[in-house]
């Protein structure tokens, strides 16, 4: 994750749009969220926008569109290949997370699409699970769009604010203090991410191991 973040910070010009769009799209469409959370990419992109390397409005539009389209592709993959997809050996070690996503989908229905947007692995899994469950695409799209807009705009603006604050501190108190502030902000974000992952792992350990066969999901069609 650190190497990808460092590579993003070194980007310049229109290539930033392409790389960020690809990472956000691939998170659910290609299940890349198991490797690299998309929220990290868009926070870094927000910082780059604060440095005027890219246009913030254009960046926001690209991120939101990539999130919505990527989840729609994940939905279609789940609709066509749901049973085989959930039975893949690569998902066996993530079975507690898959079961958790199933449970959330059963309890909340379409609302789970919005809720799942804010947890990395649920964000990668939920579209495919909704497709596998035959949730009507129109209903999925509404909550997918609401989640994509809230998530994309929120995290991007968070990165933009951090980057802007860095520049303001640099002008007011010098580069040394600005770097110190940036380090504190980055450490705080990393600690928050690590603690969230630990909480998720703790929940998984408390849940009993489930059978290898994927659990059926009720038909959510009309």
TrEMBL record:
Region (Disordered) location: 202-222
Signal peptide: none
Subcellular location: Cell membrane
Major subcellular site: membrane
Origin superkingdom: Bacteria
Membrane topology according to the record: Multi-pass membrane protein
Family indicated by similarity: Belongs to the DedA family.
Protein name: DedA family protein
């Amino acid at each position: 994750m650190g190497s990808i973040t460092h590579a993003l910070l070194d980007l310049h010009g229109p290539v930033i749009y392409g790389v960020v769009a690809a990472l956000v799209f691939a998170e659910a469409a290609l299940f890349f969220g198991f490797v690299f959370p998309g929220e990290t990419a868009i926070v870094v992109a927000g910082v780059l926008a604060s440095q005027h390397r890219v246009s913030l409005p254009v960046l926001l539009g690209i991120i939101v569109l990539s999130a919505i389209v990527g989840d729609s592709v994940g939905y279609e993959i789940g609709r066509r290949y749901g049973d085989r997809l959930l039975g893949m050996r690569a998902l066996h070690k993530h079975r507690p997370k898959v079961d958790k996503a199933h449970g959330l989908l059963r309890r909340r229905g379409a609302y789970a699409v919005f809720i799942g947007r804010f947890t990395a692995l649920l964000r990668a899994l939920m579209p495919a699970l909704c497709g596998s469950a035959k949730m009507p695409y129109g209903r999925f799209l509404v909550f997918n769009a609401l989640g994509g807009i809230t998530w994309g705009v929120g995290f991007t603006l968070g990165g933009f604010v951090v980057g802007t604050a860095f520049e303001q501190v640099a002008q007011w108190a010098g580069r040394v203090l600005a770097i110190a502030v940036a380090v504190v902000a980055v450490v705080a974000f990393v600690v928050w991410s690590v603690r969230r992952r630990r909480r998720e792992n703790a929940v998984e350990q408390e849940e009993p191991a489930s059978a290898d066969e994927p659990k059926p999901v009720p038909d959510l069609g009309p």
